[in-house]
Amino acid sequence: MRSSSTLAVAALAATTLSAALADEGMWTINAFPAEAVEKAYGFRPDQIWLDRVHLSSLRLARGCSGSFVSPKGLVQTNHHCASACIEQLSSTKEDFITLGFYAKEAKDEVKCPDIEVNQLIAITDVTTLIQKATAGKDGQAFAAALKAEIAMIANECSGNDVNIRCDVVSLYQGGLYHLYKYRRYQDVRLVFAPEKSIAFFGGDPANFEFPRYNLDVSYLRVYVNGDPLDTRSTYFRYAKADVQPGDLTFTSGHPGSTNRLDTVAQLEFRRDVTLPRYIFAQSELRAILTVFSTKGPEEARIANEMLFRVENSLKARKGQFSALVDPAIIRRRAETERKLREAVAADPQLQAQYGAAWDIIKNVLDGYRSERDRHVFTEGGEGFRSKLFQIAQVLVRRASERTKPDRERLKEYTDASFPTLRQSIASAAPIYSELEKLTLTFSLTKLREALGPDDAFVMKVLGRKSPVELATELVDETKLADRSLRIRLLEGDKAQIDASADAMIMFARMIDADLRAVRKNYENNVEAPLTKFSGQIAAVTFRLLGESTYPDGTFTLRISYGTVKGYRQDAPITQFSGVFKRATGTEPFKLPDSWIAARASLDPRQSFNFTTTNDIVGGNSGSPVVNRAGEVVGLIFDGNVWSLGGAFGYDQATNRAIAINVGAMREALSTVYEADRLVDELKE
Amino acid sequence: MRSSSTLAVAALAATTLSAALADEGMWTINAFPAEAVEKAYGFRPDQIWLDRVHLSSLRLARGCSGSFVSPKGLVQTNHHCASACIEQLSSTKEDFITLGFYAKEAKDEVKCPDIEVNQLIAITDVTTLIQKATAGKDGQAFAAALKAEIAMIANECSGNDVNIRCDVVSLYQGGLYHLYKYRRYQDVRLVFAPEKSIAFFGGDPANFEFPRYNLDVSYLRVYVNGDPLDTRSTYFRYAKADVQPGDLTFTSGHPGSTNRLDTVAQLEFRRDVTLPRYIFAQSELRAILTVFSTKGPEEARIANEMLFRVENSLKARKGQFSALVDPAIIRRRAETERKLREAVAADPQLQAQYGAAWDIIKNVLDGYRSERDRHVFTEGGEGFRSKLFQIAQVLVRRASERTKPDRERLKEYTDASFPTLRQSIASAAPIYSELEKLTLTFSLTKLREALGPDDAFVMKVLGRKSPVELATELVDETKLADRSLRIRLLEGDKAQIDASADAMIMFARMIDADLRAVRKNYENNVEAPLTKFSGQIAAVTFRLLGESTYPDGTFTLRISYGTVKGYRQDAPITQFSGVFKRATGTEPFKLPDSWIAARASLDPRQSFNFTTTNDIVGGNSGSPVVNRAGEVVGLIFDGNVWSLGGAFGYDQATNRAIAINVGAMREALSTVYEADRLVDELKE
Predict the structure, then answer these.
(1) DSSP B238
(2) pLDDT tens track for B665-681
(3) Residue B280 and residue A285: Cβ atoms within 8 Å?
(4) How far apart are CA A30 and CA A47, in angstroms?
């Protein structure tokens, strides 16, 4: 028995998870394979190198990466990571998306309404605590115990300090639980942003493609108590020299979410249900926003950010879908899974403890197929796309959740989560009622389509109204666009919310019990068993193969290594000359005036963008590219279309990260924008 | 050897194609299983019954079914089958889509610009001719021989008579070829149509659902030489009594296209490529048209027909996609295929002759995956959605094709196809330039998205223009909206087209060679091998199992049988009372004034819509439901959501056709619309 199991394990180890291949891997900062890097590239990052990368790297809490690049709290990230802020600070009179933004003096730096920056300060393994709390539990009991334990750990960690953020992160699909402790910064100000037309040159058509010519950079600054944060000990210097083909490159950032350890059933569910249905709905939303944008410059301005987000995620999901319908990926996964299950089956004890996990996961997903739309369109929010509705929902729920003990609350309403919640409610970002009506009408229509016009919940929501009538009425008759009112209501008590006659609050109140019921059903009957049995698969994988690989992306800090390298016939580095050649004079290939004016002064052979083999995915946007010396040589802003399949696996032949060369940023700042204050700061 | 083969065949026969189950089947009129019907229902349709059904049934050439229902050429079909005509006859002043239409006197009947009605008069087996012409050929040679033989057969059949239409139909994926000879009617006039709000009550949200309350009927009349066609010998009488649960029902109509005999590789290609990509693109188009429609009543009017078509096909394809991602269907097909291949492999001679077919089909499709978008967005037309472009393309191609021998032409330019071509060019249907610009801009954008902004063909098409600039310019600078000009150009020669300076003709000319190259590649390397090897699979299936089943849908006349029956908990028949209960006063659940006014005079218990087990798919719209006596008891207008999976298989437990009860049509005509002339005619 034992020997056949060993054999099976050997076969398994030879083909699978046991070791990442070549440049593959989004490694945690505390388990970086320095030896592998040394073996491949003759350079071994030491602890000092790793610590600097760790503390200089940042997370933008709404879904991007960044880094400190000066001693005075200056943050480098992508333009598209700050574009919500840039849009929120704009107005009909001054459109910084179109014109760009530059704070000539320190006093001109303006606070971003919604940006939160997180700096990781500690990681603690809490696996044993979680395992103890959930041992022997299933379904609702499992979900409740897990939630309570996580809330307790996070609460204790932050100690009610709003400047500390603590997240319990499930690594390896629940195989390990780590506590990530961050310093939280909510006073983040805009310093510089180029015009969108050069930041996103080529627009959606060029997105995820290469050759590229994008200056997708922006600079922010972290303030504390009204002063720039002192980051003398924790920042990346800008390198003097540009990268060259073959250079060793590191990225540090926050890959959002990958599914490289998912079971075949999970991948098939994604291929057959999650991805296509998401793409169906988003495709329509994209078109609605596109048409809205063509109504006039003001409409284009206010829809810009949402349209970018929708198009970007649409193209990303289409790439993931394409990757998954290529039968090779699922076939390979099936082979891996078969071998792992054989190894488990060869040991009666393992089989008894873990053998059922794969079938249970499949059964849970089979059951969820018919429930998915109800979940996604109700509690998932796809049926109620409106900031005003979201605000109303938060107010209604916060009022009710705060009356409960912390460990029993919905997880986004714990005390530890309150700073994030408060920032969203107190945000000074404008709310555009035309856009609100547009997206709410659309999403109510999709809710009706998904559940059917005769569904009881749909009839409760719409009554005898059409989606456009209901959306118009709710948006027109709510006062929640008033920021001070929202803050008052957030700080008020349940009686105040219960008594409110605000149309949107009344609506959110009316459907809240229905939405909670859907959520509860999902948490107990889908999420809980998936977490539990994915954790079992991870645990048995560790037992058989050790922890020699990296966990799936979890929007936590990861380091990757790779080299500057092209794919197919393309050279890995573009030059300034290319952007002038590719420009057509019409959107989205239209250059801003600033670049046309500066053309003669720019070195046409200046490196612009480059591709590397670094293993990155969405969430890595804004990651610095770092050389052996620990200096910034570039800024990640995209991956190529093949990198989208990176959600399911890494293929060194085609998967590429796309970055801006450091020299291009410097040259643009000095020659095109004459941003001398910034150029000087970046020399420090 | 022999005995194992026999065993395998027996196993095969037990599970598969050999016999349709229960009410399954869209049977050809010349191979109707009268015996099976008698066995199941105690009624055996005789040849007289079949002949009457055959000759009274009609095809609407652009994709619907219909039937003669009076001695004077009166045609019953769906409202949604005539809605293009209803819209084309409307204007800003008189919108018959909204108001309905009734020709009080014979002289008020108005000609539909684009409708062609076909009456089947003969079927001839031409399999041997085709097989002889293509024997031993592959790729380009196969495609050329097949095209030439089909053109010759069709030409000889029609004898240059524009009133005769001859189509060579490939049945069983090329297992058989039948020549279908039709009488062609192009003078078809609108007699009656109700308001869209009752014809399509519940709109897209209710489409493919049940319970339903739709009066989706319209009446047309066929004219010949200015007089109504004499159809005394070939029409269906309206039954006096409504259907009741359990009644035996027949439908005769033209199921458009099914894939019940496709290989697993073909189904997977459909699941992974064809269906999702179609839905992605159509979802955006739907949203674009939806927003356009909300601009005002005139925009709503001119986009109505296209929006309906897009939404209808979108919902249908989504249903097909849902059916295919349910693993049961492909698993069953794989099982059937495995058994068939085992039976073939067990006989060395069969194996040598047919054994490779499945793998070749798979390889062809694997190769086509990366070519599919180029094909669909160029020659397939998805990149050039514009009536004016289509007209220009027809003119350019016709001018060039007519200089070649008939058998060498593109198939839609043979002499036999000319009447259809001419009708499309000479159509008096209005062309709306705003809508043209909208859809052309959209499709050019999608072309760029599909092939990439740096693709050579995309750059040739767009040059330095954006999609909206190019579309606007082409639509503004073409004169092809002028009908008489188009007719002149169609009748002119190649020199005239070559010399034309019309913007759209110049554009069509510029890209024609590129489009033809893509088409040729597709025909030779995809279509030809698929046709050839699907034909081989069909042939070997016949050899092993006989021709005991029905062929996939081919938009040719088929008869189905079934019974009035509900599914799940729903009763199979709705009543007039239901529509008043379900009406909300807002679109799409808003009743027209005529119904609200007539409410008191209507019997609330009058049967309205009903469901049956008849096996129908898209193309059957407008099919009469016929009882044992050969009388019309209903009119098919839809199927339920489960019937959409009917593309791949029939499941009697859930698959239902949806029809209007004959009494509801009669009651509405007399009581709501007081259409006495029509009511009297339907009594004849």
Answers:
(1) B
(2) 999 999 999 999 999 99
(3) no
(4) 10
